[in-house]
Structure formats: C-alpha cells, structure tokens
Amino acid sequence: MSQHINVLDMAREQLAVAANYLNLDQGLHAVLAQPKRQLVVNFPVVFDNGEVAVFQGYRVQHNSSRGPTKGGIRYHPDVDLDETTALAMWMTWKCAVVNIPYGGAKGSVKVDTKLLSKRELEKLTRRFVTEINIVLGERSDVPAPDIGTNAQVMAWIMDTFSMHAGYTVPGVVTGKPVELGGSEGRIEATGRGVIVAAEEAAKVLNMNLGNSKIVVQGFGNVGAIAARIAEENGATVVGISDARGAIYNPKGLPIKELEHRYAGREGGISEYKDAEQISNTQLLELPCDVLIPAAIAAQITEENADKIKAKLIVEGANGPTTPHADHILSDKGVLVVPDVLANAGGVVVSYFEWVQDLQNFFWEEDEVNSKLTRIMRFSFGAVESTMRQHKTDMRTAAYIIGVKRVAEATITRGIYP
Ligand code: NAD
User: Which of 70, 106, 176, 213 is catalytic?
Assistant: First the structure.
C-alpha cells in the first residue's frame, strides 16, 4: 500500500491545512514546507566474507528554530530521501506540540538488517555515522532509535561520534543503554505515551480503556510495549501483527508471553498457534474499540478507511493514516489521535535523557514516567481544547498548535541575515 503514496506529499498536505487555519504568511509557509538541510551519503561496507557493498543513507534536518534538531535513525530497505524528509518534518511539529525545545530531523539507511551479521551492522552504523558526523552534535542534531535500530545501535553511534571528538559525548544520541548514559524508561516511553494518549482519548468518547478491545499493528518497540501496558491496565488485546503476518483471538492474546517469545524476532508472530492467523489487511479491519497502528506509514488509506471498525485510532507509528483516509474516518465519527501527539512519548523521554546527559545527573524511573505522563496529559488536553475551539479533527488541532509555535519562533528569531 505504502509504495503508491508519497509521504512527503502527505506531510505537506497536512501542513497546508494548518497553514490555512492559521492564515500563515505565504513566505513562512514556503519555509516550513522545505527541510533546512538534506545530506545524502553513499558509503561502502566490507562484509564478513570480504565482499564490498555500497549503501545509501540520509540525514535530514527540517527546522531548528526552537532548538537542536532531533529525530530517529531508521534502517529499512524502502527508505528514501522524501520519506526521511517527511519524517523530519513530522518531528518538528511533534516536538512543538509537546513543547520541548527541539526542531525536527530524521536519518535513514536503505538496508535490510535481516541480511547482516551483528559485526556487519556495527560496521555499517559506524561508517554511516562517520559520513553524517559533520551535521551531528549534542547542541546541533541528536539522533535516536526508529525502525530497525535499537539501544545497541545508539551505543555504536555514541562511541563513533566520541572517537572522532576525542572524548565521550553521551548527549549526541538518545535511546542509549542505561549504563552508557541512557535514561530509565526510554525503551518503554513511546508505548507508554501511546497508552496515556489512548486513555485520555477514551475518556473523550466516554469509554474506559481498561474495558476495551484493542488491535495493534506492529510488534516492535512501540507496538509490543503499548500492547503490554494496555494489557497490564486491564484491556484485552485481540489482534496483533508483525511484518510477516497477524493473529487474532476475540478472547484476547497473552501479550507478555508473545513478547517473551517473538518481540525483536522479525516475522515470528504468526507461528503462535492459539489464535487465528490472518493478514495485515484483515487485522486493520477487525472488530475492536481501539486500533493502534504501530508499524509503518500509509497503512490506513482511502481503500480501507471505510472498513475500519474501531471507534478510536491512536497512531503509534509515524504517518499511518493518509489525508484521504482522515476525511473518511472523520465522517464516520472515528477519533484519530495523531502521531505528532500520540507517539511523542519517545521524544519526550529522549529529551529527558539528553538533559540528564548534559547535567551528568540521572533520574529514577518513577520520576521519568510521572514527568512523561504529565506532559502527555497536558499536551492531549491542549490539543483537545484546540479541536473543540476550531471545530476540527485532532490532527489539524495538533498541527495548529505545533505549526504556530514553530512559525512564531521563526518570526521572533527573524530570518538571517
Ligand atoms: P521496530 O522496528 O521496533 O518495530 C516495527 C514493527 O513493525 C515490527 O514488529 C515489524 O515486524 C512491523 N512491521 C514492519 N513492516 C510492517 C508491515 N508492513 N505490516 C505490519 N507490521 C510491520 O520499530 P518501532 O521503533 O516500534 O517503530 C514503529 C513505528 O513507530 C514507526 O513508524 C516509528 O517511526 C514510530 N515511532 C517509533 C518511536 C520509537 O521510540 N521507537 C517513537 C515514535 C514513533
């Protein structure tokens, strides 16, 4: 599905809607519709068998008016410059919606990590970081994990950057292992934030998340943890999927057991026997109260939006719903909590990690989680009241807040020189 949709067009269409509400100056709109900087790198890696392959990677910084740019690094065979740019733009709005002092960035390498050994993955990471080193820095551009990358990859990024600097620079990347200056609670932060957003949204619909049936697309960092926390809070997770397949049990799936067996193992979930095996397409259309897309972009489109039965969609993934689908869902009365709000928990705790690294002073997990919950609830409330005030959908409301903050920062700073 995602191959036919240019997510950068999608991101620009979403910006145009907000620009219209805000009556944004045309020149300023043009500034915000473009990334500030796009770096494309082609670099070689020597495989374990001695063969050499060349990989393409990107680092895109969208806007730095509100602070250093921040955004994950994705390893996936389908990435390209446009997708990375869209993801960087979404990071700008996300940081502004939850009001943390960052601009947006994203990085990616076109690679299928399943085909690499651990040593090859490390070499690819170190060479990629060396190539994009010129734009990274704890005060300028700070990466984090995304699809296909994890705490180990972040540790290699920190080490490579530090080797070039000549001293240890933990604040150059977030999502690191706790022993290397990572934050307690960072691994779970995005999934935890998704569930806080889901709980708040359920209240808007007079539902109780603890009594609801939930379907989650994607069983990686975001999906598996959101599913586990939802289950811990009393909800029944009836459907779940990964890149290769999906499973359904209307009585509920044992998420902790599934996480123990399959999380981090690409494509294993459909091996689970105590459930009906279905396709990813069927998964999205299952009867449920809440749907959490937590995999890749452009999964809910004009082709399937009408068939979705959930009353509430909480976007764990970035860009899972196309603008066309948004209209269909809005007409059906489905509440969509947009990515720039719903999955912001990850960047909020990345911000906490960065603050801890800069101060060399570390917090306990309870403190991290309670500060995260407070920011998520507060941001949700602000978006909800903007939604009511402008009589619009939640995505547009979040964009009104995010784009306005970035536009005001740009105007107040002035355009250099
Ligand atoms: P991950 O690599 O840990 O997991 C991705 C999951 O999606 C895997 O289970 C994979 O099998 C599955 N998947 C991949 N392609 C799929 C497909 N076509 N259909 C169904 N499932 C598919 O990645 P993640 O970190 O959990 O990220 C998931 C999404 O959340 C991405 O859109 C990412 O940008 C977004 N996100 C992640 C974070 C974070 O902190 N990790 C923060 C904010 C947003």
Answer: 106
Tens of pLDDT, residues 208-217? 999 999 999 9
Q: Residue 4: what pLDDT? A: 65
Residue 308: pLDDT over 80: yes
Residue 304 clears pLDDT 90, i.e. is over it: yes
Please say if the pLDDT value at position 338 is more than 80.
yes
Q: What is the pLDDT of residue 263?
A: 79
CA of 108 to the centre of ligand 1 (A): 14
Residue 415 alpha carbon to ligand 1 centre in Å: 37
Confidence of residue 5 (pLDDT cuts 50, 70, 90): confident
Give yes or no for residue 217 CB within 6 A of ligand 1. Answer: yes
- Ligand 1 site, residue 243, Cβ cutoff 6 A: yes
Residue nearest (by alpha carbon) to ligand 1 atom 13: 243
pLDDT in tens, 386-403: 999 999 999 999 999 999
106 is catalytic: yes
Residue 145 has pLDDT above 60, yes or no: yes
Mean pLDDT of the region 248-268: 90
Residue of minimum CA distance from atom 8 in ligand 1: 220
Joined together, the tokens standing for residue 29 give: 């709109």
90 Cα to the center of ligand 1, angstroms? 16
Q: Pocket of ligand 1, candidates 147, 154, 281: which has the most ligand atoms within 8 Å of its Cβ, to mutate? A: 147
Is the shortest distance between the CB of 218 and ligand 1 below 6 Å? yes
Closest C-alpha residue for ligand 1 atom 31: 317
Q: How far is the CA of 217 from the centre of ligand 1 (A)?
A: 9
To the question of pTM greater than 0.70 for the whole model, the response is: yes
